Structures are given as C-alpha cells and as structure tokens.
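Fig. S4 source data, part A: sequence.
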Amino acid sequence: MNLWFLGLAVHATMLLCQLTLPGSLGISVIRSIGVWVMLLYPPALVVILLLFLKQQELIRTKSDLHTSETWYRSLFEDTFAPRLILNPADGRILDANQAAVNFYGWSRDELSTMGVPDINTLSKEEILEEMRSAAENKRNYFEFRHRLKDGSLRDVAVFSSAVQLPDRTILNSVIIDITEQKEVETRLMHALRQKDSLLQEVHHRVRNNLALIASLIDLQLEDTDTPDREKSGLKITGSRVHALSMIHNLLYQNEDLSLLNFTQFLRVLAETLPAAGGKAGSGGIEVHGKDLTLDVHYAMPLGLMVHELLLTILGESDDGPGNIRLRIDFYRDTEGVYHIGFRNTGETFTSIPMLNTDKSLSRELVKQLASQINGSIDFLPEPDLLARISFSRSGEGI
C-alpha cells in the first residue's frame, strides 16, 4: 500500500511538471505518451515491485525451510541414539533415524508401517496411557522392554518430549539401551540379599553364643561352691554380656543390620539394667533425646561404655539405691558432635570410686572403649553432671 501511494505521488509530480510546460508543448507530450499509459503506469509499476518483493520473500522462506530441514535432519539422523517420531493418539511410528534402524533391525519403511505396540511388551492400553502422559508433559522418562526384529528383548529408557504442530501433537522419543545396566543392578541386588542373609546369620549365631555364655555364667553363680567374691565378678561379667546381647537383638530386628537406633538402645538398657544386676531404685533412669541412628562400628563400643558407666554408678554409690536417680541426655550439637551426658537428678553422691580415682578398672575400660571411636570421656565436668561422652562419626572435632 505504501508503494501504491508512492507511485501516485511520483505520477502526480510528473503531471505537474508537464503542466508547467508551454501549452502546445505539454499537450504534444501527453499525446505522444498516451493518456492510458500515464494512468496505468503507476499501478503497473507497483504491481511489478510487489511481485518482485514477494518472490524475494518466497526465496528467503525456502532457504530458511531448507536450513531448518538440514538442521532437523542433522539432529535427527546424525546421532548414535535411536530416535522415533510417534503419534501419541494411536501409537503409530511416523519416522525413525538410522540408529533406530540399526537397533531394532527393521528398515525405516518397515518401522513407518508399525506402531509402538509392535515393539513394546506392554498392552496397547498401557502404552497409549503412557504416551498421553508424555504428550501432556506429565512425564518425560520411561523404562520399558522393547522387542527387536530377531525376537530378543531389551530393557530401554525412553525420553519423550511433546512437539506441538499446527494440527496435532507428536512425540520426539530418544531410546537408550539399559539392558546391561539392569543386569548389573540385578546382580547387585542379589549380592546385597546374600550379604543381608549372611549378616543375619552372623548376628543370629552371635546372639546364640552370647546367650550360651550368659547361661554358663548363671550356672556358675548358682554353684554353691563359688566364693562370694567370684560371684560378684561373674555378675558384672554377665551384665556386660547382656548388654552386648541386647545390641545384637536390636540389630537383628532392623532391616539394615549395620545401623542401630541408639536412643532406643538407651531406653531398653535403662529399663532392663536393674534386672541385670544394677540398683536403679524407685527413681530409675530417664533417657532424653531424639532418635539418633549410629553405625554398628560406633554402637558396639559405645553401648559397652554406657553400660559400664551405669553399672558402676548404680552399683558403687555409698548412698544406697533409693537415692539414685539418673538422667541420660543423648544429642548431637550443631557441629555434628554426639554427646551422652549422665546427670544426677537425685541426692548428691558422696562417693563413687570410678569418678574420683584414676585407678578404677571400670574407668580404664571406658577410656579404652572411647579410644576405639576416637571419642573422649570427662568425669564430673559440671556440678551434678557425673560424666559426658563425646565423639564424632568422622572422628574429628573431639
């Protein structure tokens, strides 16, 4: 339209120029050119220019389409991963690249006449449901079993993206063969099941052996010929065996035999320790703290440490069992260091040899156990705080 008005403006200028000529000369020029030529020349020129510009635009469009087609073919064809263009409405295969031809074994023409149900082991209804999920962008990753031309089955991972066309939606799907990965996963799962079975058997046998040792100790305690001094030592040893057996019982109940809910262990120990030889009295032991899980590498020596401390505190107080009330706090600080505090919530203890002398056997045993987990133990660090165990699972920060 702009060219049309431009042509009219040029033509009007020409007419004005002709009108400024002397009368006879202007009329002579108009006659020699012709009235119709002067009237039709501007629109004809504009039409020619429009056709020329349209032709140039068409040439550019064809060039852009050719470039786009070249890029698409390069991205679609020149890849090592099989790619399929699918119609999610009916599951038909619209196109396949050479990598897909090499993977499935069918030619491109054969694949173009097939549908996804011909290569996928799922039912057609299940396949169409999954394709709808991809077309609606609900999911873009799938794992299937695909059938090859030779009849073999392969595990594949499919990445599908929806492509919106003017008249429909298609799926651009990339297929990755994960058969070997699945086989490795299967072998690893089998190995893990074997390991779990072995660990369960080990814990089972350890539990039985500990129960046997405890029974032998009980028999020796019932022997009237055993001196009272030896019976006292046997009771302490039997209590230690009981603590180890308790840890193995809790581990045996877990799905992961390498981890122990240590807070739960503390609660069970607090409830059962009096029956194992301690003197908790009416006040007993309170356990405070969130459930925290420890690796068995830490749980075993730590469990023996806690047991030894409780057994010694409860058994060696000179104030009698009725005055003994303990609170155990188990927590992890902001730096990742674990702490177990033993606080007296009853009357003040007048004498506990373990806490006041370095020559106690129990004190030396606890120190040795603390060194196994790169931890530390402090006796009487604060008023009413009888002892505190500190350790880090990485062995740092203590």
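Fig. S4 source data, part B ends here. The first strand starts at residue 83 and ends at 86.
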